Every structure is written in C-alpha cells, then in structure tokens.
Amino acid sequence: MEIYWTKIKEIIDESKEVKTYQLACPIDFTWEAGAHVHLALKGFNEGAKPNRQLVRHMSISTLPSENQIGITTRIKEQPSLFKANLNQLRVGDEVALFKIHSNVSLLNKNQKVYFFSSGVGIATFRPIVLDYLRNGAAIKNLYSLSIESSREFLFQDLFQSQATKNFQAEFVDNRTKYYQRANELALDQTGHYYIVGSDDFLKENIAMLKEKGISEEQIFIDKREQKRQEFFA
C-alpha cells in the first residue's frame, strides 16, 4: 500500500461547522470524480498496528484539474478524536492519503440521473457535477436534491439549476420537504439514483426507492460491493 504524505495548502470555512482542507497533489496521485480516499493524521502508523482512530474514509470534493485535493468535512462542538486533531491542523501541516477508490462514478448512459445527499455528503457530488457541467455526459438530465437542516447549504455557487445544461439543483431544510420531493422524483422508473449521506439516510432512501419499484441496479451508494449488500438485504 502506497502512502502519500502531503501538506495542507488552504483551510476554507464553508459554514459554521464545515471546513474544506485543500491539500497539495503528490506526484503520481490520481483520482476520478466521485472518488474517496483514506485520510490519516500523523502518528497513525507509528505503533505495531495502525491507529484507526487517526484514520477516516473521506470523499474528494475536487477534480484533478483543480490541482488540489479537497477534503470537505463537518466538525461538531464535541468532535471525535480524529476530528479534534484535524481541527488543530494549520496550513503547512502534513496529512497522509492512501487507498483511493470510487463507487459512484457517473455512468455514460442515456438516462436521467438523480443525486440524493444529506449535509456534507453533497461534497461527494461536487466534482461529478463540475465535470458534467464542463464536459457533458451521455445522460438526459442531472437532478440534485440535498437536505441541510442548518440551512447553510454547501457549494451553492455550483449547485444552481442550468436549463441549457439539463441540470437542476434543489436544497431543502427538513425531512418532510425532502422525502416529499424524493418520492416525486422516484416516480421515474428509468432513472439512476445516487445516494450519499449517513448509513440511516442510505437505508431510508433505498427503502423508499425500492417501494417505488426502482431496482437495485438503478441505485448507487458510496460503498464497496460487500458492504453494499448489507444495505440492500
């Protein structure tokens, strides 16, 4: 396993609780839109076994063409050990990256695509949307529905409806509005549905989509195949 050590270039306060850490791109580090990576803090590999409390699975919120690796995450008032240590880091400090993988790549098929996200989960979709708007894709329409109870909606500069690009974006601030809209969108029996959020959010949306007659092959989540099966059981 190759470990890439890299420095923090910039720390952006996206909202009261959400930050984006912009990291320098190590040589030979490549990824595709929608990819995730393991982010580790100093000390994680100093013992006989890796300290898993200093490692987290994170989505990359940027494209390679942006020449930096974006990690967008929520840090609450009482954070985990990992988030507390991450919050103490400053520009110039080092972090480690390894195990790059993607489970939510946009398929080039002539169908409508729906993105369902909760909170900071929308960061996974940011590079996919950016790539779609820049380069297009063989899909009919891209629709993003995101819920954020704080109303501090992320990436609003990008997630704006563009009729000429067949892109629609919608933000809601409560579960009632969200599931009312999600149920309406799920009436499209031919669409492809991508879901990113907490495990409970994934399970609730998968159950809703299956009740609407959407097949498992039409539903995509940011989980490897073995883990994916647990959500569809």
Question: What topology emerges from the helices and strands here?
Answer:
Elements: E1 4-13, E2 18-23, E3 35-40, E4 55-59, E5 69-74, H1 81-88, E6 94-102, E7 112-118, H2 122-135, E8 141-147, E9 167-172, H3 175-185, E10 192-196, H4 199-211, E11 219-221, H5 225-232
Kindly describe this structure.
- It is a single chain.
- By secondary structure, the protein is an alpha/beta fold.
- It folds into two domains: 4-102, Translation factors (Elongation Factor Tu (Ef-tu), domain 3); 112-232, Nucleotide-binding domain of ferredoxin-NADP reductase (FNR) module (Rossmann fold, 3-Layer(aba) Sandwich).
- It contains five helices and eleven strands; from the N terminus they run βββββαββαββαβαβα.
- The longest helix has 14 residues, at 122-135.
- The model has no long low-confidence stretch (mean pLDDT 93).
- InterPro entries: FAD-bd_FR_type, FNR_nucleotide-bd, MRET, Riboflavin_synthase-like_b-brl.
- Residues 1-107 form the FAD-binding FR-type domain.
- Keywords: 2Fe-2S, FAD, Flavoprotein, Iron, Iron-sulfur, Metal-binding, Oxidoreductase.
Descriptive labels:
alpha/beta, Elongation Factor Tu (Ef-tu), domain 3, Rossmann fold, 2 domains, 5 helices, 23% helix, FNR_nucleotide-bd, FAD, FAD-dependent oxidoreductase, Riboflavin_synthase-like_b-brl
